[in-house]
Amino acid sequence: MRYIVFSIFLALIAAVVGATIAIQQHPERFSNLFEKKNEVLKRVPAFAMIDLEGAERTSSEWKNSVMVLNFWAPWCPPCAEETPGFVELQEKYYDKGVRFIGIAIDDPDTVQDFIDTYGVEYPVLLGDMKAINFSRELGNRMGALPYTVVADREGNIQQRYNGGVSKEDLDEVLEKLTHNG
Q: Does the pTM of the predicted model rise above 0.85?
């Protein structure tokens, strides 16, 4: 019995040593074992979601625009704090090609009450777990709200904000992106 246990022990040691040597000599063959599976996207991919009227809206509507994608919910205090600044910035930068797109995580009636209260006039899409997963792909690892992504006219993500973003911070980013385009 001791002989069998000792043989198994030696076989395990040999396997570990062999694997270690193989990884050291040929790391390119094993690199995918150590890569993160949930890579953060560098560009905003094509997407489609339903708006409050039940119509499908697609990202192609905002092609060649600076996009501010904001994932939020009516029950989220930081979301309510940042919304008036978003409304003001959308008005300021609309003629310069900036498009705010809200992606709300809640039922349509509650979302409608919120946007009526804050005077939101930019498109608001209704999200669910699909939207939370989309925000994760865009870098929101925890799935927390609010989460905001700013993309340039080519769809390249220029800025990410976990949690609320101040009007001043976002204004600075939008000024740079619209000044050059």
A: no
